[in-house]
Known about the structure:
Helix content is 53%, strand content 15%. By secondary structure, it is of the alpha/beta class.
Amino acid sequence: MRDMLDIQKLLVPDLLDSMKKRYTVLQHILVSGVVGRRTLAASIGSTERVLRGEVEFLKEQGLLQIDASGMRITEDGRALLEQIEPLVKDLFGLTEWEERIRAAFGLKQVVIVPGDSEASPHTKKELGRAGASVMRKLVKEEEVIAVTGGSTMAEVAVHLNATASMKSCWFVPARGGLGESVELQANTVAATMAKKAGGRYRLLHVPDHLNDEAYQSLLQDDHITEIFHFIRRARMVVHGMGDAMVMARRRKVDPETTASLQREGALAEAFGYYFDRNGRILHKMPTVGLRIEDIQAMDTVIGVAGGHGKGEAILAVLRHGHEDVLVTDEAAAAEIVQLMSS
Length: 342
């Protein structure tokens, strides 16, 4: 496929440009559900006049429907997107990056979506859709799935849908997290996933950050302990990854600990652990939830994160060595590949 693409780029570059443009239009409409032409034009950086021609062509091919509420993709359009995804990834140069990152860290799979989720809401949605797709393919019946909070994980939750396997699953928060805004809490993400997938959920109502005394006290609570043991039954964990200093501020980590993390070179945060550039754990948030040994014993660990500036943090987590699958975007992948080469 790679050789054929190279030949086509030389002989018919206009054809490939048109293909990328029409794929982008279809992909944006798929993720948006229903969208108007003006909104879509602004989202993909086009004019309404140019977009009108592409939309009419796609409609004539039976790939789009247009009515008073806007444009939506047809089943034929969905099927086409699935069929041409590998080809389009080659066009964007993403297949090579996926394999380089996968091989470097011994991962089972790497999925890279085009774009920058930090700059584009559409790419953030596509990142969530890709994460949900990976979950659906890897989940086993009656599995307990632990999930973390955050904006990217919230997008994954929105894009889940019911399958036979998913309906028999339990969704649980990987750790406490009442310090965050409600919509980004792990409890909310777990509940949303369960509702979208037709499964069941259990919640863990404990703060994100505890002092040692409060932590020990919670461990004496029978209800909290029972839920904690249920969470530890999880065989799949799906989590986000963040910049260490950004997450420390968001979680209201005390100034002394934050200064210590900065001095020690903390770059990444994932499920309450802070990592340096080599993947070494520098600090653990004292809250009830999955421990690093629980993560390492999982059947499937899926990390979902992207955006420019996130590459270094994602790389730090990958170097710790517990990931099985990485779902990221083009902007973060470019940084990861560059850092791997330096």
